[in-house]
Design brief:
eight-stranded mixed beta sheet, alpha/beta, 8 strands
């Protein structure tokens, strides 16, 4: 049976930020076919106009239908979608209104992304997180980031062999549906370091040894594996 040839090598979710733009530029330099999904396509297209094989796709939101369409077009996905502040906070009094911005962006979007990747199959996943992410954190942003990490990590093709977390009402993966997924934590970004972090993301994407791991990118080393090993210390 002939494997389907997808039109893009890499989907970059959230490619409109400074890091995303550096990442797309470096992927284009490596002659990767890149699909960039963003809510700011009009503003972003001029920045990529001179790059070959880069297409910017306007989205309204990362719902299931949108993610199914996007992931079906690429062999790999790099998720950069993140926020630093939330306007709508999580609530516990009214279930339909309980989901805050951190939960939606850092937990629900990765969850829907993973479900789409499992449904479509054959998709490499690199989920970019941050230092300090932990489901046990007292900080709402870091806590949501940590929970999003677990969703991506648990979908890994070797998570059962290494031992893995569970989470309430999460997807139950069969062996045939597990993904080549990696979580990569980055420090607080500075403009002077963006080229370095973009290069590290691409190295992670291309490294089969990173599959099933949570890694941190350091300035003096390429990557350090946090899990399996020491995690949430």
């Amino acid at each position: 049976m002939t494997q389907e040839v997808r039109p893009y090598d890499v989907l970059v979710m959230g490619g409109s930020g400074f890091l995303g733009q550096k990442l797309v530029q470096q992927l284009a330099q490596k002659e990767r076919r890149v699909l960039v999904s963003t809510r700011k396509a009009g503003a972003l297209k001029p920045a990529f106009a001179a790059l070959n094989d880069v297409h910017v796709h306007q989205i309204r939101e990362y719902d299931t239908s949108t993610l199914d369409t996007l992931l079906s077009q690429a062999d790999a996905v790099i998720n950069l979608v993140s926020i630093h502040q939330e306007v709508r906070r999580s609530r516990i009094d009214l279930p339909p209104a309980r989901r805050g911005d951190f939960e939606e962006v850092h937990i629900e979007i990765p969850r829907r992304m993973i479900h789409s990747a499992v449904k479509i199959g054959g998709c490499r996943v690199v989920h970019v997180s941050c230092y300090g992410a932990s489901p046990l954190s007292s900080d709402a942003r870091l806590r949501s980031k940590g929970l999003g990490e677990i969703i991506v990590r648990e979908a890994s093709e070797d998570s059962a062999a290494q031992g893995h977390f569970t989470y309430l009402n999460g997807p139950k993966f069969g062996w045939g549906s597990r993904l080549a997924s990696t979580v990569l934590r980055l420090p607080k970004l500075r403009s002077a370091d963006l080229d370095h972090w973009a290069r590290i993301i691409i190295e992670t994407l291309d490294d089969p040894e990173s599959i099933g791991k949570i890694q941190e990118a350091w300035t003096d080393k390429a990557r350090v594996t946090i899990y399996p090993g020491k995690i949430y210390a």
